[in-house]
Structure formats: structure tokens, C-alpha cells
Design goal:
- This protein is of the alpha/beta class.
- The protein contains 14 helices and ten strands.
- The protein folds into two domains: 213 residues, Periplasmic binding protein-like II (D-Maltodextrin-Binding Protein, domain 2, 3-Layer(aba) Sandwich); 95 residues, Periplasmic binding protein-like II (D-Maltodextrin-Binding Protein, domain 2, 3-Layer(aba) Sandwich).
- 39% of the residues lie in helices and 16% in strands.
- The protein has a five-stranded mixed sheet with strand order 2-1-3-10-4, sandwiched between helices.
Length: 339
């Protein structure tokens, strides 16, 4: 999910390294009563926003503390950072996107998805009403702003193919964090990378009658938008880290339940950290987001068959050059409740 304003958040490598060293030092704790809390640094996919309701509800409600964890949620300088920094062990956990995790697996990054935070796709083709974009085929010949993720271009190619027009006719502009300003200023005709529960809410509130076309209605199969990622090799050889991941997911599940039970409280919690968003709009964004947190299979659970199908689709469409075994990139083994 991309921020609605142009401020990019930064974190120096030195600061991240210092945090990681502290986390490693603390991971020896068994999390039992009276033990020193185990430090866990989680790198978000972007700045705090409504898609992180479960995380901040767990933090504010004491669920991480009760699990023996001292969790620090941090924002990246780029949405691709979580996979890179989890893979190198610089941070303990990250938040990323299913398509990006698949690409990371093909590229042999040392990461695996361990739980779905948002178990449905949110990425959308979006435009203000006056732009004249009403269907995917209208992107032919149009200037389209993207967030800079590698999957943006891949999705546009797939959308063009599914809707029978030349992908090369799309003029693509990487606007980074400025998806919303790019649409409002008419720098671009449309964007790919905005979410219906955030940017869509903002445009509607401003009376701009947005067109919002989920990518899953434009030629992209369903997928898990946000997932929690861990370092795969460390899970296999470090029992303390595996226990930390299990406890983090269990506590996040409790936070997710809190957000669903009391969206008003979740909104208050988020208001204190989501400083890049209009406080007056946050309740509407939370209202639009809360239903998306519900996972019929249980919090965090991912459908490995669906992941296999998505990997196959990515390969068939030329979005990845090789396939990757599903179990290399996703596992439900660290979720508390088996379904």
C-alpha cells in the first residue's frame, strides 16, 4: 500500500544493523514469565496505515507483551526492503506481498511467507472520474503511474494481454509514493498500486468519483495482498527464532481479533501512528479495511493450492522466468491453529 503523500521514510543501514544486533542478543530468551522480553523488529511494507490494523492493535493491546515479545514496527525506505533485509538477517520479520515473495523465491532470497496479514488482493487500477478510465482496456495509450514494485509492470503486462491490447502502448511512470497526487494533479491518467480501502476512500471523499478496478477483475488471479515473511534458513536451524515467529503470529492473531471486535478502538490506535493520513478519513478507511481482515480459514492461514496456481500463472504469463516449489516460499507451520 502506498502513502498518499510524497514524504519518503528513511532508515539508515547502521540503525537497522544496531536493531538487528539487539534482536539477536535477545532471542535467547524462552519468553517464559519473568524472562526478559525477546526483541523482534518487524519491517513494514510502507508507513503505518489501515492495512496494519492487526499489528498496531496487538501492540497497543499488549498482545505482544503478553507473548514475551518486545516488538518494534518500523517503516522502510522502499517497499522492496523487507524481503531483502529479512533475507540477510538484518531484521527479524517483514511485511511484503505474495507476488513479491514468489519473485524473491525464484531469485533464491532466504525468505518464506509464514502468515497472511491481508488475505485478499487490494491492488487496483485507479483513476479520478474525469480521467475517462472506465475499463482495463482504457489503459491502452494512457500514462499510468506505478509505485515502483517489480510486479507493477508485470501486472500491467498481464492486464494488457487479458484485455487484448498492446502492453507497449502504456506509458509507465514510476511515481513512487505519489500515487494519489499524481491522479489528482492529472500527471497520470490512472495508477496501479493504489488500494480501494485507502486511496479509493480518499478520492471518493474529495468528490472525485474514482474508478476503482481491482486487478483481480482485470486479469490477475486472486492472491494474498500482505504477508508476514521470515528468514527461511533460520527457521530450520534456530528453535528460539521459530518460537519467536510462532509467538508473534499468535499475538498478531489476537490483535486482528481486537480490530474486528472494536474498529473504533482500532481507529484510535492507528490515529497515533498513521500521521500521513487525514485523521477525519481514518474511520472510513478502517471501516473499509476491517472486513478484509477476515480469513475464513483462520487468521494468517494461506491456501497452498492457490499459491501453487498463482506461481504457475506468473510463470505462464512470463512474470517469472522459472517456477519455484510452493513450500519454498510459503508455510502455515508456524500458525497456532491448524485448519
Amino acid at each position: 500500500m502506498i502513502s498518499p503523500h510524497s514524504r519518503r521514510l528513511t532508515m539508515t543501514a547502521a540503525a537497522l544493523a544496531a536493531v538487528a544486533l539487539a534482536a539477536v542478543a535477545a532471542c535467547g530468551s524462552d519468553g517464559s514469565s519473568g524472562a526478559k522480553p525477546r526483541a523482534a523488529t518487524v519491517l513494514l511494507d510502507w508507513e503505518p496505515n489501515p492495512d496494519h490494523l492487526a499489528l498496531y492493535s496487538a501492540l497497543d493491546g499488549g498482545d505482544y507483551r503478553d507473548a514475551g515479545l518486545n516488538v518494534t514496527l518500523r517503516s522502510p525506505s522502499d517497499p522492496s526492503d523487507p524481503l531483502k533485509l529479512v533475507s540477510t538477517g538484518t531484521v527479524d520479520l517483514g511485511i511484503s506481498y505474495e507476488p513479491e515473495v514468489v519473485i524473491a523465491g525464484v531469485e533464491k532470497l532466504d525468505v518464506v511467507a509464514v502468515g497472511a496479514l491481508i488475505p485478499t488482493a487490494l491492488n487496483s487500477i485507479m483513476a479520478v472520474g474525469s480521467a475517462g478510465i472506465t475499463k482495463p482496456a482504457d489503459l491502452a495509450g494512457a500514462t499510468v503511474g506505478t509505485s515502483g514494485l517489480r510486479t507493477d509492470d508485470a501486472f500491467l503486462d498481464a492486464i494488457a494481454k487479458a484485455n487484448h491490447f498492446d502492453a507497449a502502448s502504456i506509458h509507465r511512470v514510476d511515481v513512487g509514493a505519489d500515487l494519489l497526487p499524481a491522479m489528482i494533479s492529472k500527471k497520470v491518467k490512472a495508477t496501479l498500486g493504489a488500494y480501494r480501502n485507502v486511496e479509493g476512500v480518499t478520492l471518493a471523499d474529495r468528490g472525485l468519483a474514482p474508478t476503482v478496478i481491482p486487478v483481480t477483475e482485470a486479469g490477475v488471479p486472486q492472491y494474498d495482498e500482505l504477508v508476514v515473511v521470515a528468514r527461511r534458513s533460520r527457521l530450520a536451524k534456530d528453535p528460539a527464532y521459530a518460537a519467536l515467529v510462532r509467538d508473534f503470529l499468535r499475538a498478531t492473531a489476537a490483535g486482528n481479533a481486537r480490530a474486528l471486535d472494536d474498529p473504533a478502538k482500532a481507529t484510535t490506535t492507528l490515529t497515533g501512528v498513521a500521521d500521513g493520513y487525514d485523521p477525519k478519513l481514518l474511520p472510513k478507511m478502517v471501516e473499509a479495511t476491517a472486513p478484509l481482515l477476515r480469513n475464513p480459514a483462520g487468521f494468517g492461514r494461506m491456501d497452498l493450492g492457490a499459491w501453487t496456481s498463482f506461481i504457475t500463472w506468473m510463470h505462464t504469463e512470463g512474470l517469472i522466468k522459472a517456477t519455484v516449489p510452493t513450500t519454498d516460499v510459503v508455510t502455515n507451520d508456524y500458525l497456532t491453529t491448524a485448519k
